[in-house]
């Protein structure tokens, strides 16, 4: 079973819910008069960003980086051109070909999960927040 088949829908739901929570937290921060509530909201927002980055964004980015560097490592380190390694040459070439295919984890088979996803979520939440502020007035 493909990893994208398993994680696609849950990651899309997680992104959607996190964007909604970020937007609500920004609204609470802008309307709150209580310092304790503001601090609690900021800590919650920071924890969500940190969680998403460390649990999803960073490992997915490392997976993509390692997959793309595999071809370079095989080409530079395995000495596949030596005559003594001739029986393995076709295997090395197959590994190089397969590692050049882009590997990624997707949310809803649409958006690639990476470090930039966290920033995109915050940007989207801020966009919704400004929309709510403009509609409210």
Explain how this protein is built.
- It is a single chain.
- This protein is mostly helical.
- The protein has one domain.
- It contains four helices and two strands; from the N terminus they run αααββα.
- It has a two-stranded antiparallel sheet.
- β1 (106-107) and β2 (111-112) form a beta hairpin.
- The radius of gyration is 22 Å and the shape is elongated.
- The mean pLDDT is 83.
- One of its GO terms (biological process) is signal transduction.
- It is found in: Cell membrane.
- The chain crosses the membrane at residues 6-29, 41-64.
- It comes from Apriona germarii (Mulberry longhorn beetle).
- Keywords: Cell membrane, Membrane, Olfaction, Receptor, Sensory transduction, Transducer, Transmembrane, Transmembrane helix.
Structural domain count: 1
Helix content: over 70%
Distance between the termini: 50 Å
Q: Topology as H/E string?
A: HHHEEH
**Secondary-structure content class:** mainly alpha
Uncertain spans: none
With helices defined by DSSP (H or I, 4 residues minimum), what is the helix count?
A: 4
Read across the widest sheet, the strand sequence of neighbours is 1-2
Keywords: Cell membrane, Membrane, Olfaction, Receptor, Sensory transduction, Transducer, Transmembrane, Transmembrane helix
Membrane topology: Multi-pass membrane protein
InterPro entries: 7tm6_olfct_rcpt
Pfam family, one: 7tm_6
């Amino acid at each position: 079973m493909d990893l994208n088949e398993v994680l696609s829908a849950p990651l899309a739901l997680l992104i959607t819910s996190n964007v909604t929570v970020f937007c609500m937290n920004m609204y609470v921060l802008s309307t709150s008069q209580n310092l304790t509530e503001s601090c609690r909201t900021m800590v919650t927002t920071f924890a969500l960003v940190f969680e998403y980055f460390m649990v999803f964004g960073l490992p997915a980015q490392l997976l993509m980086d390692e997959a793309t560097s595999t071809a370079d490592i095989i080409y530079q380190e395995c000495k596949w051109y030596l005559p003594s390694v001739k029986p393995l040459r076709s295997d090395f070439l197959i590994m190089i070909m397969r590692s050049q295919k882009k590997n990624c984890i997707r949310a809803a088979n649409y958006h690639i999960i990476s470090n930039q996803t966290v920033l995109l979520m915050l940007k989207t939440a801020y966009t919704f927040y400004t929309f709510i502020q403009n509609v409210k007035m």
